[in-house]
UniProtKB/TrEMBL annotation:
Similarity remark: Belongs to the TonB-dependent receptor family.
Organism (species): Saonia flava
Membrane in keyword set: yes
Protein name: TonB-dependent receptor
Pfam families with a match to the protein in the record: CarbopepD_reg_2 (PF13715), Plug (PF07715), TonB_dep_Rec_b-barrel (PF00593)
Positions of the TonB-dependent receptor-like beta-barrel domain: 318-748
Taxonomic superkingdom: Bacteria
Subcellular location, record wording: Cell outer membrane
Membrane topology category: Multi-pass membrane protein
GO CC terms, sorted: cell outer membrane
Chain ranges of the TonB-dependent receptor plug domain: 125-216
Signal sequence segment: none
Length: 798
């Protein structure tokens, strides 16, 4: 806190002798309306600021002659000189600036959408708002920003996804310009894979998910790439210690064909040993790139293509070894290649037809360099996804709009293959691929029958079909021994599922600043990720539903109260939710999914419940702005197996891996002037559940722990403070170039948050003062135990 006070004192200025107060009043010349956020630049002090909601700005400056430059988007610049020898008030009236534009793109956000919209648990963030999020390791990041939202968490420093309202990571549908992302992070979860400079908006749905989305039972994170509506060249990017990036927007054919392209690379091998001694043998590098072409053949047609590529490589020696493979470390090499073709046809001013073709390929690979050998053993899997969607939408009037559509998806999963290379220590293995089809139809209507009542109702019908080639196994009563197998030829029906998925949102406005909302959603999930850790590794398995694996089904209910204060400058929200889930996946004790032909041996399906209350406070405007969220929640699971050996906690309810009863997130941005922005982000949450042994048994002179209950203890409380300082500047003689420096400190006070805890047999009197007479020793594993510094230079040229 002392550091922050010093920084603010230094940059925002304290009073000095021979100073006078200079006050500005900036208004519109025609209407006299105050202009909020007008830019005031003062020379020769190179100082200034932005006006408040009343168009006012006050500064204390030494006696001198100053040149004042006042600018505001859409208005002509005003330049004048003043002599400051006493307290002075300056009134400036700005004229609107008329320009000829080839096309006008209207982007507007309803400042009272949290009160007006019937959508519950929804959050929309624009590009401008994304950039106001506290920078994580040198740059703003989508997933890090989402973890500041009530009910959204990750599994710690090393986590490649989000847990929304106690759900598992694979229960979230993550879309990047309509294409699915199966692994959304770089560098052990510190970065998301989404190229920062090309992002347009982010939408998160946690409650009544709109009917156009399906396939995941917990949430939808829909990330859009900018449409490159540009008439001149624009460059942007950043150079940093952890990653560097570059983006370009330019017209190719004026008013017809435009492009935006961005890329990013991170080479962090040299930083990791500095962060932690445990990471001295760790290597990591990543790349991602996005390109979007926009073609406007006519006034009523818009065609775009988005391409996305992401690649990661990292080496860890902290991961458990794989049986029969003698390797000192594990190397992970995984990539994603997506393409989206989007055609929007405007039938008239109120009706539109959108057709979307998506292809996605996710290819994770694990490499095992054999000890004392140049040979490498490779394990590889793949997911291919192909989708076609056609959607018609119409705005009937101000009170009624609707859309309806159909969607056809094809999935192909290659569960895994093992290539021993030139070695002979292991045999080659290739698991049979899985092919599935999903055909859906959906409709959604938004209707305001009364001035204070609005409804959002949707319905989705899905039909899933698994086809051959496929081998279906039957098991004995223990669920482990295969008694029979049935082989299905290519194209033969293996199993099909279908079901209705209703969605409903209701909003009742009590007055212009208060509303009550209720919601309901039912969703089916036919693909699941199988893993037995808190975060899926690239070796984790994706599995389609068949006769033995039933689809996950959820019903989610919500109720909320929302209130705006101070002319909508402060937003308050209180939401409660309850979700019951069937056929949740849980692993049996001792489960090992690596190259397992029949996952049924290691997996059981049970019940899940999640419920909680979320409080949110948001102040989006002003020199000091930010938000505060607190969540109390429960996320519990229960097995239903009749077989005693397959029961988890004897079929009693137990905490899921993602249960965090208490979570607090707070973010504050200090925008003292137009040059300096200081951000602080604090997160604190209950430690995640983990399993401790209930006893031990001696086998061949070794003390082996016994685990009779799952998730029967918790790690210590997780808390972390992040600091970000952005210094902006622009040279008046070259307004085309704008740059800023961003300095960030992740984990400011060096909190050592445990990522995991494990038990081993003690040798002799090792740590006898801690473990006393216990034959087992308990040890905590932390990834970061010191601050992580980053410095990035960001620029825009146009």
């Amino acid at each position: 806190m002392l550091l922050v006070i010093c920084v603010l004192s230094f940059n925002f200025g304290l009073g000095q002798d021979s100073e006078h107060k200079l006050t500005f009043k900036i208004v519109d010349f025609t209407t006299g309306k105050p202009l909020e956020s007008a830019d005031v630049f003062i020379q020769p002090c190179d100082c200034g600021g932005i006006t408040d909601r009343d168009g006012l700005l006050s500064l204390n400056l030494p006696e001198n002659r100053y040149q004042i430059i006042v600018s505001y988007i859409g208005y002509k610049e005003d330049v004048r000189s003043v002599v400051l020898d006493k307290d002075l008030s300056v009134s400036v009236k700005l004229y609107e600036q008329e320009e000829q534009l080839s096309e006008v793109i209207v982007r507007a956000k309803n400042l009272t959408s949290n009160i007006e919209s019937p959508q519950m648990g929804a959050l929309e963030i624009s590009t401008q708002e994304l950039k106001k999020l506290p920078a994580a390791v040198g740059e703003f990041d989508v997933l890090k920003g989402m973890t500041l939202v009530a009910g959204v968490n990750n599994a710690g420093e090393v986590s490649n996804g989000l847990s929304v309202r106690g759900g598992s990571l694979d229960q979230n549908l993550i879309l990047y310009d309509y294409a699915p992302i199966f692994n959304p992070t770089h560098l052990f979860g510190l970065f998301s894979v989404f190229t920062p400079d090309v992002l347009s908006s982010v939408e998160l749905y946690r409650a009544n998910i709109p009917s156009r989305y399906g396939g995941r039972i917990t949430s939808v994170l829909d990330i859009k790439v900018k449409n490159p509506y540009v008439d001149k060249l624009k460059l942007s990017g950043g150079v940093g210690l952890v990653s560097s990036r570059f983006a370009i927007e330019t017209p190719i054919i004026k008013d017809k064909l435009m492009v935006i392209a961005g890329g990013r690379a991170g080479l962090t091998d040299f930083l990791l040993p500095i962060v932690s001694k445990r990471l001295k043998n760790t290597k990591a590098r990543f790349y991602d790139g996005t390109i979007k072409l926009m073609y406007l053949p006519s006034e009523n047609n818009q065609i775009s293509f988005t391409g996305f590529y992401s690649k990661d490589f990292y080496q860890l020696d902290l991961i458990s070894k794989v049986d029969d493979i003698n390797a000192e470390n594990n190397q992970y090499d995984f990539k994603t290649l997506n393409g989206t073709l989007n055609w929007l046809y405007s039938i008239n001013e109120k009706s539109r037809l959108r057709t979307i073709l998506v292809a996605s390929d996710y290819n994770p690979k694990t490499i095992f360099p054999e000890v004392d050998s140049d040979n490498e053993i490779e394990y590889e899997s793949r997911i291919n996804y192909l989708s076609l969607t056609s959607e018609f939408s119409k705005d009937v009037n101000e009170k009624l709009d609707y859309y309806l559509g159909i969607q056809a998806n094809k999935y192909k999963i290659d569960p895994g293959s093992l290539d021993p290379g030139a070695g002979n220590s292991v045999l080659p293995v290739s698991l049979t691929s899985e092919t599935g089809y999903e055909l859906s139809s959906y409709a959604n209507i938004n209707w305001s029958p009364l001035e204070n009542l609005s409804l959002s109702g949707g319905i989705r019908f899905t039909n899933f079909l698994l086809v051959g080639p496929y081998t279906l196994a039957q098991f004995d009563e223990t669920g482990e021994a295969v008694t029979n197998t049935q082989f299905f030829d290519k194209g033969d029906k293996v199993k099909s599922y279908s079901g209705w998925e209703p969605r409903l949102g209701i909003n009742l406005k009590l007055n212009n600043s208060t509303s009550l909302k209720a919601s309901y959603a039912k969703v089916n999930q036919y693909m699941q990720n199988v893993y037995n850790s808190t975060t899926p590794l690239p070796t984790s398995r994706w599995k389609m539903s068949d006769s033995n694996f039933k689809p996950q089904k959820s019903n989610t209910y919500g109720f909320g109260v929302y209130k705006n204060l101070g002319d909508d400058t402060v937003e308050l929200g209180l939401e409660g939710y309850y979700r019951d889930t069937k056929n949740v996946l849980a692993y049996k004790p001792g489960a090992d999914f690596f190259l397992e032909e029949f996952l049924e041996r290691d997996i059981i399906q049970g019940l899940g419940e999640s419920y909680g209350v979320e409080f949110s406070f948001k102040k989006p405007k002003g020199r000091i702005n930010g938000w505060f969220n607190y969540t109390w929640s429960k996320s519990i699971l229960r097995s239903q197996s009749e077989n005693l050996t397959d029961r988890i906690n004897n079929n009693n309810w137990y905490s899921s891996d993602f249960e965090r009863p208490h979570v607090l997130n707070a973010t504050v941005n200090f925008e003292g002037n137009k040059y300096n922005t200081v951000s602080l982000n604090f997160t604190g949450q209950s430690g995640r559940p983990y399993t401790i042994p209930t006893g031990y048994v001696e086998i061949e002179n070794k003390n082996v722990p016994i685990y009779l209950e799952r998730n029967n203890s918790r790690l210590p409380i997780y808390h972390r403070l992040d600091f970000s300082w952005t210094v902006k500047y622009s040279k008046k003689e070259n307004k085309r170039w704008i740059g800023d420096w961003t300095f960030t400190v992740y984990n400011l006070y060096g909190r050592r948050n445990p990522f995991n805890s494990y038990y081993t047999q003690r040798v002799g009197d090792e740590n006898s003062d801690i473990f006393l007479g216990s034959p087992l020793g308990s040890y905590e594993l932390s990834i970061l135990n010191s601050p992580l510094f980053a410095l990035t230079y960001n620029f825009v040229f146009q």
